[in-house]
Amino acid sequence: MASHPPALFATNKTKHLEVAYLFDIQQNKGEPLKSYLIRFNNATVRVNDLDKKNFVKAFQKGLRVGQFNDSLALRKPLTMEEIRARAKKHIEVEEDQVDQLETERQASTHDTRSASQGGHRGENKYSPKLKDYPLTLTPLREKRAQILRDIYHTHLLKNLKEAKGRNMGANLEEWCEFHSAYDHSTEDYYTL
């Protein structure tokens, strides 16, 4: 054993990867484009392949659905250098969004601290936001009156539910189930 040079042992040899390995590299959920690009580039260094088109195909296959993936689909890149150049802009946008979310998070924690320490305690002068309501979807097969009832609490409707059995106009033949009034039909609501 002493007569063999150390390069002959398997532990001392650098492991070269096959191109097929690149197709197994996937962008993880929530992983920024920058870290995926770094991981992919580190793997391409260990692959011995003269055909760089496979690198581009493997990168696109592992990329998650998003704006950058869409832009690559519209204008197909020919080289990894082109992908890196185009990714640079998207990485900057992602980092700006992360910075903006962080500042908003810090501002909201600052606001909650000041409110808990005896800050301004007044009613919210704005109407409730849509995110405050649970997400329940009304099937489109429902009657329009039911759909109107389901979205009434979001304050998206301009007409208030004020008629309740009264006559809203001269046309006594059309009945609106939602308003419980005459003058117009429930089917007249077409902009929901």
Describe the structure.
Residues 102-113, 120-130 have a biased composition (Basic and acidic residues). This is Retrotransposon gag domain-containing protein. Residues 94-130 are annotated as: Disordered. The protein folds into two domains: 6-116, no CATH class; 130-188, no CATH class. The chain has helices spanning 19-22, 33-45, 53-62, 67-74, 80-116, 144-151, and strands spanning 175-176, 181-182. The protein has six helices and two strands, in the order ααααααββ. A hairpin with a 4-residue loop joins strand 1 (175-176) and strand 2 (181-182). It is mainly α and 192 residues long. It is 42% helix and 2% strand. It has a two-stranded antiparallel sheet with strand order 1-2. The protein is elongated, with a radius of gyration of 30 Å.
Domain count, please report it.
2
Average of per-residue pLDDT values: 71
Strand order of the largest sheet: 1-2
Helix content bin: 40-55%
Shape: elongated
Main β sheet profile: 2 strands, antiparallel
> What proportion strand?
under 5%
Structural class per helix/strand content? mainly alpha
Q: What is the C-alpha radius of gyration, as a whole number of Å?
A: 30 Å
The DSSP helix count reads 6
Biased composition (Basic and acidic residues): 102-113, 120-130
Organism: Mucuna pruriens (Velvet bean)
Protein name: Retrotransposon gag domain-containing protein
Region (Disordered): 94-130
Short précis:
With 192 residues, the protein is mostly helical.
SSE arrangement:
Layout: H1 19-22, H2 33-45, H3 53-62, H4 67-74, H5 80-116, H6 144-151, E1 175-176, E2 181-182
Antiparallel strand pairs: 1-2
Protein name: Retrotransposon gag domain-containing protein
Organism: Mucuna pruriens
Biased composition (Basic and acidic residues): 102-113, 120-130
